[in-house]
Write a structure and sequence with these properties.
This protein has 629 residues and is of the alpha/beta class. The chain contains 26 helices and 17 strands. The radius of gyration is 27 Å and the shape is elongated.
Length: 629
Amino acid sequence: MALERINQVNDIKKIPPEEYEQLAAEIREFLIEKISRTGGHLASNLGVVELTMALHLSFDLPKDKVIWDVGHQAYTHKLLTGRKAGFDELRKYGGMSGFPKRKESACDCFDTGHSSTSISAGIGLVAARDLLGGDEYVISVIGDGALTGGMAYEALNNASRLKKNFIIVLNDNNMSIAENVGGMSEYLNGLRTNEVYTNFKSGVEQSLNRLPGGAHLANQLKKTKSGIKQLLIPGMLFENMGITYLGPVDGHDIGKLLDVFHKARRVKGAVLVHVLTKKGKGFAPAERHPARFHGAEPFDIENGLPRNKRKKANYQDVFSTCMVKLGQRHEHVAAITAAMPDGTGLKRFKNIYPERFFDVGIAEGHAVTFAAGLAAGGMKPIFAVYSSFLQRAYDQVLHDVCIQNLPVVFAIDRAGLVGSDGETHQGIFDLSYLSSIPNMHIMAPKNKWELSDMLKFAVEFNGPIALRYPRGEAYDGLREYRKPVVYAKSELIYEEEDIALLAVGSMVKTAEKVRKNLKETGYSCSLLNARFIKPIDTEMIRELSREHRLLVTMEENVESGGYGEKVLNYAAAQNLPVQVLKIAIPDEYVEHGNVDSLYEEVGIDAESVTKRVIEKYIIGLSRSDVPII
């Protein structure tokens, strides 16, 4: 077994070339077997096995630096750098991350998680190398989907000025998570299928070599290859930018990859190696359905079907159904996604109302300003986006939507702790960064019915408005509490005295458990569904302060800038006769792991909250003049 001989970085260089194909097959078998148990990013990793092998054969890690854009495709890289044993605990709490992590290995030179960043980071490493007199190679691996992100073009423009070697590997599988869209996709499609240049160069060279003195002419012809490319392949975007272009090359042919990397090492300046790969290669279900196996749950290897079949609808299903109904009722409703039609639940809307559906690619900043333009033109745009990805468009939300007070709806998916993808994907900052923007309004539903009601309210609202909801199974409790959504008004579910739990969105479910625990211990407890995080329901806070000693705010967001901070500040400013305990995620990054485990780790599970409430309530009785923070 070739893979058994890979125990540390550069062991692959001890494998004879005749065993490369066997090693690639063993790596794919290993990844399929492990990910079928743990879940993880399968299709993207199966597609880059030979590419990763060729990089490790061509370069000397950790001296040379390989930056993986997004980073979810770095599993083979982790295998080849001695982390085989870590796959049993892949993406589990305390286990190996599914993304490159500098603290995990010296071979991971840059942490990644969001797309379109690798070229910028690579240029920085190149500049540091040249300033410090180093001689290492720097290689940025970026997918064709990530090239739809504007940051990649800013970096390419900068890279064209380099005078020393910098290698950009374009891993082109015609996919991001969903099928790629836009002009870059069309351009790369042309390069993939255009054989004119390759056949012309090969045919002319062979013909000249058969003539007396032809070898000299062939050599002169090679020196003018840029001109020939310009003539035969219109645009030549990368060459026109001043970046040497090599390829396209078969990304599953190690021999060809080794040859092209050998050539790339000799280039003075930036060079782009265009590699063609197949997402999901080697596992038929993933080849047929690469989007389904982008981030796979544990599955049956024989048929690729999930092991744990979902019984209840998730929030994305509810959002999907509601969007279709809104599209039917309101001809001005339009839907926008940044390369996530399946993940956000917009695929059905796309199929029924294709003319009002817009996939802008991995370009969140553009998506927000595009939505602003739609709104200014009289449409009602709904931008469905993961919480952690909306962070990338903060300036556009502030500058292009909120300053103009345009009626854009932000449907913020994966809000709160999302689990196995770790720090770069946890949606725990949106309440804080959106709350800082004037004219922005923020809601959070307690269950699936309220998500539907809030989305309808948002479509009728005349201004920027966001509703945030979590990943996973939609809560179907408290159906009997379904009051109409009224601007800036909360919902009192249980009314008692002494302690009041003020819960935001997903935390209402947890607050129910906390209330039950408190009542079993002998405490009287009210429960409020906050509904609006901005503006907060100040009238209700004032009313609760009359009959309660302690207000407990509960949110799945970092403490700084969150709902609890707003309630505490209001209570203090109004000198209300009540103490406030903030239950929130500590102001720190949360690593990967099962969501329930992470709840316990950060102290927002029902048992941890119950304990803190009782402790602080007792303290509050003895020191009523001191606010509980």
